[in-house]
Each structure stands twice: as C-alpha cells, then as structure tokens.
Amino acid sequence: MRKLCLLVGACLSLTLVSGCTAATDDAGTSRPVVMTPSSRMQSPSASPTADPSTSPSATVSSTSSPSGSASGDDDQGQTTPDARGKIDNNTDPGSGDGRGDGDPADGPTSIQEPRPTQMIPATVMTPAMEGVVEADAVAALARIGLDAEVTYQPSDTVPSGIVISASVEEGTAVALGTVVALVVSGGSGGEGLIDLPSYVGTPSDEARAELEALGLVVVTTAEHSIAIAPGSVISQSPDTGQASPGDTVTLVVSDGPELLAVPDVMGMSGAAACDAIDAVGFTCQIVCDLENCDSDGFLDRVARIAPEAGTMVYQGFSVTVHVV
Description:
- The protein is α+β, with helices and mostly antiparallel strands.
- Among the domains are: 123-187, 2-Layer Sandwich (Trypsin Inhibitor V, Chain A), CATH 3.30.10; 194-254, 2-Layer Sandwich (Trypsin Inhibitor V, Chain A); 259-323, Trypsin Inhibitor V, Chain A (2-Layer Sandwich).
- The chain is built from 6 helices and 19 strands.
- The protein has a 3-stranded mixed beta sheet with strand order 6-9-7.
C-alpha cells in the first residue's frame, strides 16, 4: 500500500511539472490533454461541465470555428445550429415561403389586378381660318385631323374664295374628327358668279352633281310627266343666267305618267264626254257607230267607252267614245 501511494504521488508531481496527463476517450484510446496555466488556475465551480444531452446551448458554445471564435457564426456559409440545436441548411434569407424580405428577387409580395386605362379623346388646337384662302383653310384642318364643311355667301367686303367666318374660333381645343363649318365669300358685282346652264331633260343625278361641283345647293321635287322620261329634269329654278356660290337651285324631276281611272261618260254627248276625258289627263277620240251619222236618227249619245270606265291607265292614254 505504501508503495502504491508513493507511485500515485510521483505521478501527481510529474503531472504538475510537465503539465501533461493522459485521458481516455470513449473508445479506450489515450490522448494527451494540454493544460494551460489558466486551466489550472480556474476553479471547478466557475466552469461547470454541461451535459450535452440536456443543454443544447452548451453544445453550440463548445463548437469552435477555424478562426478560434466560439460564437457559432459561419462566415464561410457552413451549416450552423439554431438556438434549439436544429441545423438550418437554408442560408438564403430571401427563400423559404415565397414571401421574401423585400428583395426584388423574392418576387411580388402580392398579386394586384391591373387598373383599367381611362381613354381620353385626343384634342387639337384649331388653326387660323378667317381671312384664309378656302383651299388653304380646308388643308390646314385636314392636316390636324379635322373636317371642313364649306358654304358660300356673297360679300361686298371679302374677296371671292376667302373664308369669312368659321364655326370654331382659332386656338380652340376640339376632338379629332370635329367638323368645322366655313363660310366662304362668293364675291359681289359679278365677281365669283356662276353661269347657270339649263338641265331640262337631263337625268337628275347628273344635274345635281354638276351644280354641287359649282358650289350651288340643289333641292329637288317630283312631278308626273308624260313628256319627260322618269328621273329626268322637267324644269329648274332659276332656269338660266348667273348664280353666286351658295345659291339654291330647284330641280323638278319627272316621276313619269300618272296612273288614272277612265271616267264614266256613258250617255253624254260626244263633245261633253271628250271634255271630261281631257280634263282627267287623257286624250279623246269620238267614233260614230251608225252608218250615217248625219241622218235624222243620230242621237249623239255615248253608247260605249274603250277602255271601259274605271280602268286604270297612264296619263295621256287615248280613250275612245262610241256614240250613236
């Protein structure tokens, strides 16, 4: 026993001198343990041994980084345990549940419906038109997307072909496609007057096109006629002479002959029957059905009509009355 105590004391003395001892790991292998002065001076109560199985935080604090830091932060992107001892392999703060932290790479935070676009019609400023040549004013309006409606008016002060007034003042904001009415001078004292030809017998469509091309306003009315073909001009007013731009010309257009009923003239004298037939619009012819109409037996009374009374025929048709 004494020898054993001496041997233990020698070992303790050797340990204090060399600062070395031997430790055995779980596998039974001996490994050197370096004892520093601070570790020999530390009180056992100041550094209690933590149970790794019951203190996850002790496990975290005992893990040292290659740089000597025991904080558990990994500057090289290595996996580190969290405060609960779990390892978080996700090192990208912007990934996860898709909500992100505000980084544009995280995508939109919410889906928003696009707002409907309010369509505001484009507007343009009207150019100067009063005192401008008609063709120039119309072209200026067309260049900015506006239409012109031109009428003509005689004027003693404004030369022919110059704009007298416009329906919209210069510098007014209007929508594209707006129609601007222009009043153009037709002149006076023979200046700007138009020689008006006769269009009687001319198809009304041709007459209208030519008159409107001269700057005249055309009005048409219809009448029945047996002399003028349907659709052609029967008469016009004014018929000939001169007119100023903007003047109105009235055309009377044929509707053709009218459909009329033959009147009942039975029992009338031949002359009286023809007067009645002519008044309706037909022509009349008398035929005596006797061999000798000059005899004492001639009564001069209508005994038959062709076509019969009440028949609808066109105006101007010839009706024959037979007298006895």
